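Render this sequence as a predicted structure.
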Amino acid sequence: MNFQKICVIGLGYIGLPTASTFAAHGINVLGVDITPHIIETLNKGEIHIHEPGLHEAVQNAIQSGNFKAALNPAEADAFIIAVPTPFKENETGEYNGAKYKLADMRAVISAAESIVPFLKKGNLVVLESTSPPRTTADLVAPILERSGLKAGVDFHLAYSPERVLPGQIMRELIENARVIGGVTPESAQAGRDLYATFVKGQIIETDATTAEMVKLMENTYRDVNIAIANEFSRLADKFGVDVWEAISIASLHPRVKILSPGPGVGGHCISVDPWFFVEAAPELTPLIYHSRQVNDSQPHFVVDLIERALENLSGKKIAALGLAYKPDVDDLRESPANEVVHLLQHKGAQVKAWEPFKPDANLPGITMASSLEECIKDADAIVLLVKHTEFINLNPEEITKKTKAKIVIDTVNGFNDEVWRTEGFTIYKLGNGKSFILHPS
C-alpha cells in the first residue's frame, strides 16, 4: 500500500515519537490528542514529555510541514491508535476470592469511535495500545464496522504493539523488530507496508491476537523474573546474606541469569500488562497473579527495611532520591518509589523527594524538593529509590557536608557501601541481610 497521510491518535510517550518519525520520512501526519494544552504546545514546536531526541524531531516535523496536531481526526490513508490503557480505578475482578485489576479501555473505545466518520474503503487502522487478548477483533473491529465497512474486507485492521525502552524510544522505534498482527493476512501485509516506511528491524507478520499476546508475554516474562529476584532479596535479608553477591555468583551458571531486585515494578508496561492476562483468564494464571502480588507488595518490604534501620519512623525526616519508575527517565507512572513515599508518610515519617528528571512533578501528598541540597539538608536518613546516573555518581565526601543524615538506605544497589562507610555513613541495602549484622540495633 501507498500511504500519503496518516492520523496518529494519542500523543504520549509512544504516539508522539511515532508521529514525528513518520513525518521525518516524508509522510503527512496529523497528530490527535484530547488535551488542548498538548495540541497548543506541539504546534509551537515544543513538547510535553521528556525523551532524548524527541524535541528536535518534533521541531523538524513541524518546520517541514509534515506534522500538525489537532483535537479531532480527519480523513487519512491509515489511522494509528496509541492511547493509554490504564487500570479501572474503582473496579476489580475476582476469582476464587482473589481480586485482580481490570483494564480501562475507554480511551481505546473513544479513539476507535472518533475514526468511524472518516473511515473509507482501503484504509488501514492499527491499534498500538497494549491491550488484553482479542481486543482488536472483539472490541475495536465492531466499533469500526459501525461505518458500514467490514474489517478485513473493506478496510485493513491490525495490531502492532510498541516494544521500545523509555530513554531509547527514538532509536528503538526504527531499529527494533516489529510485529504486525492482522485480522487477515492482507491486513498484516498492509501494516508491514506502513511500518516499513522507517523500521529497519525485522517485521514479523502474524494474526492480531498472537501479536497482542506476544506483547503481554514479553512484559509478563520480565515481571515473573523480577518477582523471583524480589523474593530472593527477602530471603537474603532473613538469612543474613548479601543477595547482590549471591546473584552475581549464581548468574555465573551458564543457564542462569537472575534479574535485580528493587523497591517494586513500575511503569505502564511491566507492572500493568500481566494483569491483562489475569483478567482474560484468571483460572489459568496463578503464577502470573502471584508474581504481581510479590512485586506490588515490594514497597512494603522496603518500608519495613527503612523502619528497622531507623528503629522508629514517626517524626523522622527522610530524603527520598528518585520518583521515576526506572533510571534516567521522567516517567512516574505506576512508580513503586511513589508508593514507598506514601507508606513512609502513613507511618509518620516526614518525606521530601527529589526527582531530577521531573522536579516540578505535582504528585498528590508528596512534598517535592527543588534541589538535591534542599532534599537532604535536614534529613535524618537518605533513601535511594531510583538508580539515576546522577545519584550513583554522588560523592559521599561532598554529601556529608550538605546533610546531617548519617544513615543511608540503598534499595537499588546504587552505592558503594565501603566508600560511603568511609565517610561516616551507616548504609543499609535492600537484600543485604549482613547490613543488620554489621549495624545491630
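Summary. The chain has two domains: 5-85+102-208, 231-438. The radius of gyration is 24 Å.
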